[in-house]
Write a structure and sequence with these properties.
There is one protein chain. The protein is of the alpha/beta class. Helices cover 39% and strands 18% of the residues. Among the domains are: 75 residues, Helicase, Ruva Protein, domain 3 (Orthogonal Bundle), CATH 1.10.8; 71 residues, Beta-grasp domain (Ubiquitin-like (UB roll)), CATH 3.10.20.30. The chain contains 13 helices and 14 strands. Strands 1, 2, 3, 4, 5, 6 and 7 form a 7-stranded mixed β-sheet that branches. It has a 5-stranded mixed β-sheet with strand order 11-10-14-12-13. The radius of gyration is 23 Å and the shape is flat.
Length: 393
């Protein structure tokens, strides 16, 4: 899956991206420092299965602390969005086209309010920033539909085709599914048999609701350690009660990740504390790290970056983590619990088998739950953190 980082220029998207991935990207205090999209791997946290099974895992991807398994997910940082992007202003066309394959959006908001709507230094309003981005994303989705709607709606009504299936096929590039379309039609009470009678408002509401369904969004209230940020956060939460908003300091997270890599501190992303290596830091560095502990970690429980990623995967997208595990818990090379897969909620044992390989799905006989040692069938619904062995013919 792919998480797309969105927001106005200079909101801290690239800093958030680098703090989550440690990828080498340009971070600058001027608009459009990012032109080509950046791709990298962040991680989400899963309670380690190895401890429960009294062993120690050896991940092929990600890592494990013994308590927590960090599973990789792909992040994409794109050019900043300005008002009018849906009509091509700024890097709008390029920005929006790269977002088609994103499964969900993480909007990075400058909660300190120190940059204007175009990302330039000055006075800004986080509420207006969110409204602007919502409006541009809704116009983008609607514009894609309007290009083909007149012809498509006539064709669907004349041929009496399956509306949900046809829309899902036409807009598969946006990751629209039949179930997505059906849910929106039901919610808005729109008649799929008479699309030519839909008003402009009907189409606008349909595309807006479909966008929220297919590209759900969380807000990372960045720069939370700056003056006026907490006051702005409260106002933003009141203005958008339907959107999850997590306070964060991407700059602090990046500093901590880099310091941990340099062995200056002991710190794992998402932790609420850090431990300073007195032999590796000078007084100035110690003071800076102490400030992060006091003003960010103690006050908010973490830098917020890890919480944003975890929420996007497990709450917004409702994915579950599944461990492929044989009777000996090891692969052919002796690696213990080397893999952990993220699957859509509601996945079955057979879905999991096919996610491993088509042949494994085709030859599925049964699955074994490694905790209970019991056999389950192909329709058995999986739960988060299940350890499953697939038996084939």
């Amino acid at each position: 899956m792919l998480l797309g980082l969105v927001g106005k220029p200079s909101s801290g998207k690239s800093t958030f991206f680098k703090s989550a991935t440690l990828a080498d990207v340009l971070i600058a205090s001027y608009p459009f420092a990012t032109i080509e999209p950046n791709h990298g791997m962040g991680y989400v946290r899963v309670k380690a299965l190895c401890k429960e099974l009294n062993t120690k895992c050896n991940p092929r991807t990600g890592f494990c602390t013994g308590e927590t398994r960090f599973v990789p997910v792909e992040l994409m940082d794109v050019a900043g969005l300005v008002q009018g992007a849906s009509e091509g202003k700024g890097l709008g066309n390029q920005f929006l086209d790269t977002l088609r394959q994103a499964d969900s959006f993480i909007q990075i908001v400058d909660i300190s309010g120190t940059t204007d709507i175009e990302g330039k230094e000055g006075t800004g309003d986080p509420i207006e920033d969110v409204k602007m981005l919502e409006n541009e994303l809704n116009k983008w989705y609607r514009g894609i539909f309007e290009k083909v709607w007149e012809k498509l709606s006539r064709s669907l009504q004349t041929t009496k085709s399956d509306f949900a299936k046809a829309i899902a096929t036409q807009f598969s590039g946006l990751k629209v599914t039949e179930d997505d379309v059906k849910r929106v039609l039901l919610k808005l009470k729109l008649d799929p048999e008479k699309p030519t009678s839909w008003s402009e408002e009907d189409l606008a509401n349909f595309t807006k609701t479909l966008r929220h369904s297919t590209k759900p969004m969380i807000i990372a209230a960045n720069k939370i350690d700056k003056p006026t940020a907490e006051e702005n956060l409260k106002k933003l939460q009141v203005a958008f009660p339907e959107i999850k908003i997590i306070p964060c300091s991407a700059d602090s997270e990046l500093s901590l990740r880099q310091a941990a890599n340099a062995k200056m501190i002991e710190y794992v992303q998402g932790d609420s504390t850090l431990k300073i290596n007195e032999e590796k830091v000078n007084e100035k560095q110690k003071e800076a790290l102490g400030s992060i502990q006091k003003n960010v970690l103690d006050k908010f429980g973490s830098t917020g970056v890890q919480e944003v990623l975890d929420y996007a995967i497990f709450d917004l997208l409702k994915y579950i983590a599944i461990f492929p595990a044989g009777s000996k818990l090891a692969d052919s090379k002796g690696n213990i619990l080397p893999d952990c897969f993220l699957l859509p909620g509601g996945s079955t044992a057979l879905n999991f088998a096919y996610s491993l390989h088509t042949d494994i799905g085709d030859k599925f006989v049964k699955a074994i739950d490694v905790r209970t040692k019991t056999a389950v069938g192909k329709d058995h619904p999986l739960k988060n953190r299940d350890g499953i062995e697939i038996m084939t013919s």
